[in-house]
Amino acid sequence: MKDWPFFLANKPAQPNLDLAVTNKYSGAVAARVALADSETIARGIEACVEAAEPLARMPPYERQAVLNHCVQRFKDRYDELADWLCVEAGKPIKDARGEVDRLIDTFRIASEECVRVRGEVMNLEISARARGYRGMWKRVPIGPCSFISPFNFPLNLAAHKIAPGIAVGCPFVLKPASRTPIGALMIGEVLAETDLPEGAFSILPCSRDGADLFTTDERLKLLSFTGSPGVGWDLKARSGKKKVVLELGGNAACIVDADADLADAVQRIVFGAFYQSGQSCIGVQRIVVHESIYDVFREQLVSATNKLVAGDPRDESTFIGPMISEKEAERLDNWIQCAVTAGATLLCGGNRTGAMLEASLLENVPKDEPLCMEEAFGPVAVLSKFSDFDNALCEVNDSKFGLQAGIFTRDLYKAQKAWDVLDVGGVIIGDVPSWRVDNMPYGGVKDSGLGREGILFAMEDMTEIRNLVIRTP
């Protein structure tokens, strides 16, 4: 078992070890972490405010050097980072390595974009009254930022806030998820090795009850939150005048049209529905299949799902690990049972032992059941059939969420129509909605959030446009 400090104004501090972090597979306490109280959070915000000017003055090449240092140190600590993901998040080792790869990509992209923050020279002489005037604008850091990251990607979803913040020169306070704080603290260890101005970052695990200042403090100019819709929209309502970026939930749908390559679609959908034990906001939850191929597709999908290996996340063969807690597994188990009681057919899975829930597929689930309406956030997906492509698009849109959708079709016109019609943040053609690369604009509409992540797009949110007009007499 290891003890972990938090980071206050760039420095480690360990006033207590009040937060126990469990191994999500065994249930044993794997680490103890220092927990910040409201006074400590206030000190972190004050230091963040004081660091705003020196960090904004830091030349881009120096900020780039910080980000490049992080890239190298994450490579050096690759196995350690992946191992802690297995422990604190219950993430199967192959998924854990994939997240470390994405962490490295995210900081690398930020280092590249750091020296490309652009502006524009404008011709203002659009009428006689503007004769002799010229203009230009540039982007400047928005100022102190508040970041709140979730449990399911402890490294990379924290990185999608931290890396663009450093790239543009915004100091920050970060609250990692209490169930998985160690990934963010390891990023803090690496940042502490750099020459960032004092106060440029604080990483402060804390209880939800004690975290109010992350949202309400008026000195913070931006709140970036990734997590559940209920919490996110409440934070926005209490955030005051600051800019708010929300990356929230989803119940992503995937259409499989009659012309799809079935073997490919099955292989990708099994991955999209069950990777990370289904704990992804863009995991495949609703599978809408053309009636002409439905029976064959269902048979192949059930067969592939039944072959998935569940067990210890550290085992190389494991694909399904534990959910984040037994309580969450019990919730989803109850949703499955409710759907079956309401007339759904359980095609495979449906058994639970503690936090381990089998990969499960259902069909004929009533549309008003939580498995269709809400975010499952676990290893379960539901199948339905369609005869008309337009109706399939309507079924995808029949959701309060709108994060990403996947379409397996070879018809260019259908692909274009999906892009035009689907009320989501991203449409993925020929693959599952679960696909993401870290430089693309990523985010949702409706209850799925506000704003976009992806390094360049997050950098835009973390900057403001400052205009300059020059008059020549």
Question: How would you explain this protein's 3D organization?
Answer:
There is one protein chain. This protein is an alpha/beta fold and 473 residues long. It folds into 2 domains: 2-248 and 448-471, Aldehyde Dehydrogenase, Chain A, domain 1 (3-Layer(aba) Sandwich), CATH 3.40.605; 253-437, Aldehyde Dehydrogenase, Chain A, domain 2, CATH 3.40.309. Helix content is 38%, strand content 22%. It is built from 15 helices and 25 strands. It has helices spanning 38-57, 60-76, 78-89, 93-114, 156-168, 182-191, 213-216, 229-237, 262-274, 294-306, 326-341, 370-373, 389-397, 412-421, 455-461, and strands at 2-4, 6-8, 11-13, 19-22, 29-33, 120-123, 133-141, 145-148, 172-175, 201-203, 222-226, 243-247, 253-256, 286-290, 345-348, 352-353, 356-357, 360-363, 380-386, 401-402, 404-408, 426-429, 445-446, 449-450, 463-471. The protein has a 7-stranded mixed β-sheet with strand order 15-18-19-14-13-21-22, sandwiched between helices. A 6-stranded mixed β-sheet has the order 10-9-8-11-12-24, with helices on both faces.
